[in-house]
Each structure stands twice: as structure tokens, then as C-alpha cells.
Amino acid sequence: DALRRELLAYYKWSITDANLHRTEHIPVLAIGTSAPLEPVASVVGRVTDSLHDLGRQYRAHFFSHHLDRKKTNPPAFKRQLPTLYGVVITQMIVTFVTYDARFPGKPVQSMGNYDFSNQGQDVWHALAVAIVIVRARDYLVGLKKEEEEEQQQQQQQQQQQQSRGSLLLEEDEEEDEDEDEGDTDA
């Protein structure tokens, strides 16, 4: 339970550090902890189910009917889908798994097991945790940046359309004035 608490605290810190704590996003990390005497397979199953659920959310959110007219396999998405990360905690052992969100039902892949009771390996274990957490966070940072750039482009397009509309309106007014002047000459 202490490992879960500390991993969550580190993940939350990384989200805050990247200024993502005030943005809505679908998580890219799922953490499962075993209950006393719970089989490892049960915890892996829960984390796998969570990752598959997150993958469904990402596929639904970023699926593009416009881009996928030919029913490509894998389907076309508006954005690159993430590699999702799972953390399975059983007593003092932490296992990291990944799941490719593009492929429904694909099994999770194990990245490694880290025994936190093994003295002398704490630095390596901390590095492994940091790599997974930062990779998960970096996807969200990239996603936020893409969305901000897209919003800026949309705003620029709207401003260009408004300025074009103003120019057309001015031209129409000038034409109306010319017609009015022509009416007074008659």
C-alpha cells in the first residue's frame, strides 16, 4: 500500500510539474495493488482490464470517421494513440506493463519486475519508476501542445475569415456609394 501511495504521489507531482493538473485528460497509467493472499494473476487481470478500458476511451475520443473512410486496419485516428502503462504491485514487487491503445484486446507486454525488498537496487528501481512516469506524462504534454497549436490555428483562421468578411463588406459599401452617386447624376 505504501508503494502504491508513493507511486501515485510521484505521478501526481509529475502531472502538476508539467502544468497538466488543470486540464482534462484520459489517464495513461493504471495502478493495481494486490490484497493480502490475492493471486498475482488477479491483479494483472484488473490492470489489464483498466488498460483495455483506457484504450477504448482513447480510440473513441480520437477516432476519425473523416480519415477512416476506407476502414483501414488499424483505424485512422486524429492523433497518435498512446502506449498505456500499467503498474502491478504485489507486496514489495512492482511490475510494469504496457498496452498499445491502437489495438483492441491486444495483451499487455511486461517491461520488467522490480523487487523493492532487494537491498542495493533502490537507485535502479527509482530510475525505472521515473522512466515510466515521465514517459506517461510526456504523452500528455505532447497532446496538450498539439491541442493548443490546433486552437491557435483555428483562431487564426477565424480572424482571417473575419477580416475577409470586413473587406467584402467595405467593398459592398463602396459599390453602394458609387451607385448612389450615379443616381444623383441622373
Quick structural summary:
The protein is of the alpha+beta class. It is built from three helices and four strands; from the N terminus they run H-E-H-E-E-E-H. Helix 1 runs parallel beside helix 3.
Percent range of helical residues: 55-70%
Question: Can you write the helix and strand succession as a string?
Answer: HEHEEEH
- Order of strands in the sheet with the most strands? 1-2-3-4
Structural class by SSE content: alpha+beta
Question: How does this structure look, described?
Answer:
- The structure is a single chain.
- The protein has helices at about 1-15, 40-60, 120-185; strands spanning about 30-35, 85-90, 95-100, 110-115.
- The chain is of the alpha+beta class and about 190 residues long.
- The protein has a 4-stranded mixed β-sheet with strand order 1-2-3-4, sandwiched between helices.
- It is elongated and about 95 Å long.
